[in-house]
């Protein structure tokens, strides 16, 4: 059952790798299951996922898929995509690296640098990790690079009219150790919120100390 679920979820990953329609334009719904696709597409998806699973394990496929699903649910404005980029070395530990193009454009007027990090964690990475009962990856943990843009805009309409000017690119990387995930699950009664304080964070490759959010983090990148 788990293998089937991985295949079905990953279909959404593959479909979302193509550029989305401009903000505000409807996009056609994707297939619900593998059975909704032609046999040739099913075979190509199966081969791709089998290769990923053999090289990095089943959890890597689930993480890859869930990252993209959550980015889409938040409301990505631009093209979205995700890939497993191999093993990354950071501060003496080895991490399996995931690169996520979120497609998000943050509003500088209402989302500061820390709030952008808080939102990426709370709406994408934390729920992704919550879907995995016991994180099992070959290195010590995972490094998740989330690429987005930020610029000022006062309304969603303004952003729609200037969507070809996404603003300043930004890459936030979360380094999460497998041991920390297990410890937080054991001590926190199942909640992964305390894990934020244990992971290392870089913004555009510079390490940052980001305080935990004082209240609920934003759940949208800007005005609706």
Describe the protein's architecture and organization.
Helix content is 38%, strand content 24%. By secondary structure, it is of the alpha+beta class. Helix 1 packs across helix 3 and helix 3 (58-74) packs across helix 4 (113-130). It has one domain (2-208). It is globular. A 6-stranded mixed β-sheet has the order 1-2-3-4-5-6.
- Tally of DSSP β-strands: 6
Number of domains: 1
Helix count equals 6
Following the backbone from N to C, one meets helices and strands in this order, namely HHHEEHEHEHEE
Largest sheet: 6 strands, mixed
Structural class: alpha+beta
Q: How far apart lie the N and C ends?
A: 38 Å
Going across the major beta sheet, what is the strand order? 1-2-3-4-5-6
- Percent in strands: 15-25%
3D shape: globular
Rg, Å, rounded: 18 Å
Helix content: 25-40%
The overall average pLDDT, rounded, is 82
- Low-pLDDT segments: 1-37
Helices and strands, with pairings:
Layout (H helix, E strand, L loop, with lengths): L1 H15 L22 H18 L1 H17 L6 E10 L2 E15 L5 H18 L10 E11 L4 H6 L6 E10 H10 L12 E4 L2 E3 L16
Parallel strand pairs: 2-3
Antiparallel strand pairs: 1-2, 3-4, 4-5, 5-6
Helix pairs in contact: 1-3, 2-3, 3-4
What keywords describe this structure?
224 residues; 6 strands; globular; disordered N terminus
Briefly say what this structure is.
It is built from 6 helices and 6 strands; from the N terminus they run H-H-H-E-E-H-E-H-E-H-E-E. By secondary structure, the protein is α+β, with helices and mostly antiparallel strands. The chain starts with a helix and ends in a 16-residue tail after the last strand.
């Amino acid at each position: 059952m788990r293998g089937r679920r991985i295949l079905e979820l990953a279909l959404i990953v593959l479909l979302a790798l193509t550029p989305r329609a401009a903000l505000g334009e409807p996009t056609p719904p994707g297939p619900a299951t593998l059975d909704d696709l032609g046999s040739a597409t099913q075979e190509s998806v199966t081969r791709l996922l089998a290769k990923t699973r053999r090289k990095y394990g089943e959890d890597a496929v689930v993480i890859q898929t869930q990252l993209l699903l959550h980015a889409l649910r938040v409301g990505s404005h631009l093209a979205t995509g995700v890939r497993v980029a191999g093993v990354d070395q950071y501060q003496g530990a080895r991490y399996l690296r995931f690169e996520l193009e979120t497609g998000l454009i943050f509003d500088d007027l209402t989302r500061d640098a820390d709030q952008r990090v808080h939102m990426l964690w709370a709406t994408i990475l934390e729920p992704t990790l919550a879907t995995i009962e016991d994180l099992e990856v070959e290195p010590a943990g995972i490094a998740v690079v989330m690429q987005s843009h930020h610029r000022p805009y006062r309304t969603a309409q303004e952003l729609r009219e200037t969507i070809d000017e996404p603003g300043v690119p930004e890459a936030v990387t979360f380094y999460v150790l497998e041991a920390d995930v297990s410890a937080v699950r054991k001590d926190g009664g199942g909640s992964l919120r305390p894990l934020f304080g244990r992971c290392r964070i870089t913004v555009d490759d510079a390490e940052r100390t980001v305080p935990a959010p004082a209240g609920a983090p934003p759940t949208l990148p800007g005005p609706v």
